[in-house]
Amino acid sequence: MSADRHPEYSGAQGEDLLDLAPCGYVVMDGAGWILTANREFLRMVGLGPGDVAGQRSFASLLPVGARIFLETHLWPMLEHDEVVREIALDLLRADGSKLPVLFNAVVVSGRDGSPASIRAVFMETTERHRYERDLLAVTTAAEAARVEAIRLSQILQQTFVPPPPPVIANLRVAATYRPAGDGTVVGGDFYDFFQLDTGNWMIALGDVSGKGVEAAAVTSFVRYTVRALSIEHPDPAQILTLLNRALLDHDTDRYCTLALANLRRGPYGWDIRLSLAGHPPALIRRPGGEVTEFGVFGTAIGLRNDPLFHTVRRSLGSDTVTLYTDGVTDARHDGEFFGEQRLLDLVGSLQHDPTSITDGIASTVLDYQRGNASDDIAVATFQATD
Amino acid sequence: MTLAERLNTRVQGHADSQAIVFVHGFGCGQEIWRHVAPSFEADHRVVLMDLPGSGGADPSTYDPARHASLVGYRDDLIALLDELDLSSTLLVGHSVSAMIVALVQIERPDLVDKLVLAAPSPRYLDDAPYVGGFSETDIDDLLALMSRNHLGWQDPLAAMVAGPDSPSIKGELIELFCRTRPEIAAQFAAVTFRGDNRADLVEVTAPTLVLQCRADVVAPLTAGRYVADSIPDSEFRIIETRGHCPQLSAPAEMTAAIRDFLAHPTYPSPLASR
């Protein structure tokens, strides 16, 4: 629209155009002295018409900290690029308060050899700045909450991480637990060694489905239920049957796999009674390096009302027995599983003692996944010392 | 990559002559010297570089732990001079780099023949009776302001994504001026403005020219005088200009001051044998 068709606007030209503009408008010399400022700018800084033009430098209308930014960034950028845009600043008002603004400026070359000047506009951003601060506060709070959640998860994880196995007379034991990924997610793998009587121990090693706090809570439930049941019931298969009932009655959709071994020491050494619930069989390693599987596959705990469990028994002799969770065999590299055969070969190649076998499995599987474990790993190995 | 490449180092001018090394300060990279450095190319070897984390320096050069003090920058500069096989240089440091080049001279006098300290301040915070010009609150305000102004620091990332052959790269590189990654800029600001190098100055043994701007809100005249008074063999010269960057606001005067200083005969400093 041209002004001549709207005569009422014909006055909005030149000085008036700038003086009544709805943004702060300032002309400075090349050194930042204010030559002229419009009404909106005077309102922003809370000064009268005679107080600014020719009286003040731009720097003097900024908080002290911002003057550093002006000198070290804005003036050099203006000198280099002859323009700066969308700079967030605070103007220092006459009453000492601050007014947030967005600042654009251009360098205008002088005509006929007169010196260059700087033209600057200021848009008040009080509302937007409040919004940005709220947004920043919310983002900061969210970040703090995330950090706190990770911290709590790690504390919880530490609570559920199985402690080192106890010292057992006449039995050498080694166990390890490695959480998946960076260890920030609570996992569901566990093991437990506990004594029932002299020369009578239970060893449980299992894996509750899923990860996180709920899986860890179910892990805890399973461990302590097994402990309670073991006092009254000597047969691992029977304990698993009762545990299955208890977990079905428990308010969770989680299920669990478990290898449960009862070790008793008699006049001829240790006997092992083992029952499996949806869990890989134990690995028996003979002193010569031959490795065989031991155990009869049973139903996973918490899935069915009519589970089947079998207890198998053998004399420990001088063999080692290794229990492990499927984080070992399901470890993947380029889509290929670590698998049972690799594990059998590995155990056969290791030294014939629980620590070498347990640590050898854990480190080999972690290396196989290039240190980035996709699932928890729990391994426990034991061997008679007489 | 050599350190020189990683610090975006440019060596120009007269290869067999004394080297002048220009070191930019907090805020902008080597481009800030563009009105001063070229005039020395006729009779000097002119070295320009970007400090780690600044300008066109490779991001890998910046290490938050090492650059938590000016000593990290000092060691980088020493390593660069050694790599370029330079000695007896004229080291010109602006703003915070005035302190960095002074630290280089103290640590390795063999690398430095003379020092030029442009707009130096050995301490920005007030510490009565010393006047630095700023309070802790002012520095907090500066850091808060910088966090509100990221100044398009993501541009270099965009350039990297576009690839080095992209026609937009040249434009992007020009846009880099005074753009630093916000977390690096914040740490550099904190290291700069919370530092205190007053005690170091008496250790400087090279002849030193202190150039202070007449009206500089960042490094006031008193700060420049303090520096000149503390360095045994020093000359104090005021540049009649406003602001903190005489190489932009008064390049001719600054060039002339450095030329005058270079023309002085160099007397062995009474402390040089220490």
Molecular shape of chain B: globular
Helical percentage of chain B: 25-40%
Q: Based on the structure, what is the oligomeric state of the protein chains? A: heterodimer
The rounded Rg of chain A comes to 38 Å
Q: Indicate the structural class of chain B.
A: alpha/beta
Instruction: Count helical runs of chain B.
Output: 10
Helical content of chain A, roughly? 25-40%
Measured between the Cα atoms of the first and last residue of chain B, the distance is 37 Å
Strand content of chain B: 15-25%
The biggest beta sheet of chain B is recorded as: 7 strands, mixed
Strand neighbour order, sheet with most strands of chain A: 2-1-5-4-3
Estimate the strand proportion of chain A.
25-35%
Count, helices of chain A:
9
Overall geometry of chain A comes to: rod-shaped
Order of helices and strands of chain B: HEEEHEHEHHHHEHEHH
In whole angstroms, how far apart are the ends of chain A? 104 Å
- Structural class call of chain A reads alpha+beta
- List unreliable stretches of 5+ residues of chain B: 152-174
Number of strands of chain B: 7
Q: What series of H and E elements makes up the topology of chain A?
A: HEEHHHEEEHEEEHHEEEEEEEEHHE
Account of the 3D structure:
The complex is a heterodimer of chains A (386) and B (274). With 386 residues, chain A is an alpha+beta fold. Helix content of chain A is 34%, strand content 30%. Chain A is built from 9 helices and 17 strands. Chain A has helices spanning 14-19, 39-45, 49-52, 64-81, 126-160, 212-232, 236-249, 339-349, 354-368; strands at 24-29, 34-37, 83-92, 98-108, 117-124, 171-178, 189-197, 200-208, 256-266, 269-277, 282-285, 291-294, 311-315, 320-324, 332-333, 336-337, 377-384. Chain A has a 5-stranded antiparallel sheet with strand order 2-1-5-4-3, sandwiched between helices. In chain A, a hairpin with a 5-residue loop joins strand 3 and strand 4. In chain A, helix 5 packs parallel to helix 6. Chain A is rod-shaped and about 110 Å long. The relative contact order of chain A is 0.09. With 274 residues, chain B is an alpha/beta fold. Chain B is 35% helix and 16% strand. Chain B contains 10 helices and 7 strands. Chain B has helices at 3-6, 70-83, 96-107, 136-148, 155-162, 169-175, 182-193, 221-230, 246-249, 251-263; strands at 10-13, 19-23, 45-49, 89-94, 112-118, 208-215, 234-242. Chain B has a 7-stranded mixed sheet with strand order 1-3-2-4-5-6-7, sandwiched between helices. The A-B interface holds A 30-32, 57, 59, 63-69, 71-73, 75-77, 79-81, 87-90, 132 and B 25-28, 31-32, 95, 133-135, 137-146, 148-149, 151, 174-175, 177-178, 189, 193, 216-218, 241-245, 248-249.
